[in-house]
Amino acid sequence: MHDVDPKLLEKWDKEYFWHPFTQMKVYREEDNLIFERGEGVYLWDIYGNKYIDAISSLWCNVHGHNHPRLNNALVRQLCKVAHTTTLGSSNVPAILLAKKLVEITPPCLTKVFYSEDGAEAVEIALKMAYHYWRNKGQNRKVFITLSEAYHGDTVGAVSVGGIDLFHGTYKDLLFETIKLPSPYLYCRENFGSLTPECTAKLLSLLEEVLKSRNDIVALVLEAGIQAAAGMLPFPKGFLKGARELTKRYDVLLIVDEVATGFGRTGTLFYCEQEGVCPDFMCLGKGITGGYLPLAATLTTDEVFNAFLGEFGEAKHFYHGHTYTGNNLACAVSLENIKIFEDEKTLEKLQPKIEYLTQRLKEFWELKHVGDVRQLGFMAGIELVKDKQTGEPFPYGERTGFRVARKCRERGVFLRPLGDVMVLMMPLVIQKEEMDKVIDTLKWAIQELERGRV
């Protein structure tokens, strides 16, 4: 147990700690969770209350908290050295992890550039793609992306984002992009669902843009689902078709697997499901099993070779971070991947995905559920004020947060995306624990119907 009075911790939290994506005026008026320890899929707060971590601590925890193998990997490396720079030198875990990442990702990806989080992985891909064309003697400067896209919160990542609530404030700081419609929203509005006809139409819209411009650097896509937009899946075949078009028109493809990578969609990476090998793949979140900040941008020999030259040519990639390729994070990441292999994590996940699919059907019966969306082990249940018209709850009412707070009463920790209740459980969660999460969320939504939330 901690040796600081819990009331003092609550006071100091609100006095000194500015939280991300949080309206601090509201936060300071409420009772909030302060976690102290974890074990498996459970977290305990400073008062000893126990919760299932149903969002994997913001989608990054894979094998559970306090995993003995990950703990031991961290300690073993810590007893050697915690950090050494990779600017002009290297370290053993970073080398071994780079080799392993190349082995487990799509075959055209052969080079690994490290950073600390998903936004940085995307930022690096954007800069590399732009710089690649400069080194090839072409002055390309425009990126294609999607409405409702989310790729992180650094300026480049925001530029290729498309959620106005998050990104609109910073529009004067951003570079030029071409925005295509969100596939899920476009298909639902124009075709009623994710039909092959909608896929074909979306690809035709993309081809029109690719035909009309000669200054396009890259197409930037999330992998199979727009997660931060509220779990909006792509129609099957869209990513594969986009890859074929970018090849045809000599445009780079950046695929953001930060949220989807490391098993979230049922395969290690979503790209596997459509047989896609992009020019850049961005990884983060689950790369260390939810232990330490690490991200990676993988790319091809073609891109890498464009940066080779004599020192005086100044063609090399002028980008880096103090903790790039951190020894501790890379050591834990290696063990994380070994656990996937040794414990057959993906094989054991398949029946859980099927079970989640069946149980999600129950939410359609609820009065305030307007949509239920899923890709693999990722799911979103959209709350609406009027089920018939799809009218949303007013933004300021914080309905999703109130439902999540209700779930805390029964020991389930959730964080919604607006009024979309997100289920992103650790891959090792067991059926009875899944039942508790799902039953609790259903109950909380029913309490909303009864006016008790």
Record the SSE blueprint.
Elements: H1 6-16, H2 24-27, E1 35-39, E2 42-45, E3 50-53, H3 56-59, H4 68-78, H5 92-104, E4 111-115, H6 118-135, E5 142-146, H7 155-159, H8 164-167, E6 177-180, H9 183-191, H10 196-212, E7 216-222, E8 225-226, E9 232-233, H11 238-248, E10 252-256, E11 280-283, E12 295-299, H12 301-305, H13 327-342, H14 345-360, E13 369-375, E14 378-383, H15 399-408, E15 412-413, E16 420-423, H16 431-449
Parallel strand pairs: 3-15, 5-6, 5-7, 7-10, 10-11
Antiparallel strand pairs: 1-2, 2-3, 4-12, 8-9, 11-12, 13-14, 14-16
General description of the model:
This protein has 453 residues and is α/β, with parallel strands linked by helices. It has two domains: 33-63 and 351-449, Alpha-Beta Complex (Aspartate Aminotransferase, domain 1); 71-342, 3-Layer(aba) Sandwich (Aspartate Aminotransferase, domain 2). It has 16 helices and 16 strands. Strands 4-12-11-10-7-5-6 form a seven-stranded mixed beta sheet, sandwiched between helices. It has a four-stranded mixed beta sheet with strand order 1-2-3-15. Helix 5 (92-104) runs parallel beside helix 13 (327-342) and helix 15 crosses helix 16. It is globular and about 65 Å long.
